[in-house]
Amino acid sequence: MPANVIRRVKQLGITYPILIDQNGANWNRWEQQFWPTVYLIDKHGHVRYRWAGELEYENAGGEAIMARLVDQLLREKY
Length: 78
Description:
This protein is an alpha+beta fold. The protein has helices at about 1-10, 25-30, 60-75, and strands at about 35-40, 45-50.
């Protein structure tokens, strides 16, 4: 499984870190209930926003909402 992920990450040109959580340690640490879950983390490492589930499930508009929240976080001075 990790070999498949590594191959696909290279194919897609992804350069950011990718977590492979084969034993569920990260899932449990974050007390996950849904996959996928997106977290927005501020400049100080604090989780500020969370979206559980697919961003566009049933036209939820999650991509636009999260993009707006990212912009807000990027504008913060501290």
